[in-house]
Design goal:
The structure is a homodimer of 206-residue chains. By secondary structure, chain A is of the alpha/beta class. Helix content of chain A is 45%, strand content 13%. In chain A, the strands form 2 sheets. Chain A has a 5-stranded mixed beta sheet with strand order 4-3-5-6-7. In chain A, helix 1 (5-14) packs across helix 2 (22-34). Chain A is elongated and about 65 Å long.
């Protein structure tokens, strides 16, 4: 007995998810076969519509349903603070912690010479423009506590050199070697509360 | 910032899969957002079509694309041996081990008084009918090596009492406490090769 083609095809498609192997994918397919039909239909529909319904915010790059994301269209958010994150996912993790009242800036990339990645220069240019236009007082770097995050922080700091803005960074309350997307709310809260000002430029200026 | 509704909805839907929590579901959604669009569309389409394309075999209950599954429509399979499994998933695991040349019978349930489950009586009746019609020589019970599997084996054995058929069971080469769906091919092979005949009825008859 060979499995139906549509069955094998779906196993292959599900296997693209990180951490999902052939056996896990097969379990998922059998789970769908034995589950309530309305759930399966809703799942298929929701996945199919995802790209149509979800876009990127024109201002900060976070996920949005219209031209602006929820944060950027919320007039009560404090525009003097911009929290810089690497990905849309990190932005959601920060936001769900509920401890930040400012706005975001999604870099959309990180500095990693080993993997030949760099921070998109248009994103840095857009950040400079936002700081100038809004009179931003503080840029908070919420970057992953890894070597790539350190390098990315340095790149952002370089890009903002000479601007009248304070640059801070989340403290290493985050578990070193971890990832912002997996951090719990309490850890994110501690990390935000104990953020420290970056002082490299000041020392160089002495 | 609240997440777009379609985003939250999809996280909720994905969270129905066993072993998938909110964070895993969120990672999956972000993975879909950053992935090749054709893959996401194919995934949505494949999930949506699954129920239409996959059915149950009228004879043995295994997954099929037509009225009969691949095994039952294969004339070269040995009809003197019927392998009894609990679920369609177990049937696939057995079949993919490639060591069995007979046909299957999917019970579609197991005996578990604690969880108020029992083996569907129509499935047992259908098994009796198949044995009579095909002149089956051997029924091989490929049931999970757990207490529920033992009870299910007993129920099947009772249902076939008095029929001129040998009843065997996969040996405990399977790791005790495990599950057929997760067993590797080698273990399944050993378990099939060292299957033993059930002797309760013979002893009672003495």
């Amino acid at each position: 007995m060979s499995l139906p083609d549509s069955f094998e095809e779906l196993i292959g498609l599900l296997g693209h998810f990180p951490g999902v192997g052939e056996k896990t994918a097969r379990r998922m397919v059998f789970f769908m076969l034995s589950s309530d039909r309305s759930w399966v239909d809703a799942l298929a529909h929701s996945i199919g519509e995802l790209r149509e319904r979800v876009a990127s915010c024109e201002v900060c790059g976070a996920i949005a349903t219209g031209p602006l994301c929820g944060t950027c269209s919320d007039r009560t958010r404090d525009r003097t603070q911009i929290c810089v994150v690497e990905t849309q996912e990190d932005c959601v993790a920060m936001e769900q912690s509920g401890v930040f009242g400012g706005v975001y800036h999604v870099l959309g990339g990180r500095c990693s010479p080993l993997e030949d990645e760099e921070v998109p220069s248009e994103s840095l240019e857009r950040l400079r423009m936002r700081i100038r236009e809004n009179g931003t007082a503080e840029v908070i770097l919420a970057l992953n506590p890894r070597i790539e995050g350190d390098m990315t922080a340095y790149v952002v700091q370089e890009a903002l050199a000479g601007m009248a803005v304070k640059i801070t960074r989340l403290s290493y309350g985050l578990p070193v070697g971890g990832s912002i997307g997996y951090a719990d709310r309490v850890t994110l809260h501690i990390a935000l509360e104990s953020r420290r000002e970056m002082e490299v430029d000041k020392e160089e200026g002495r």
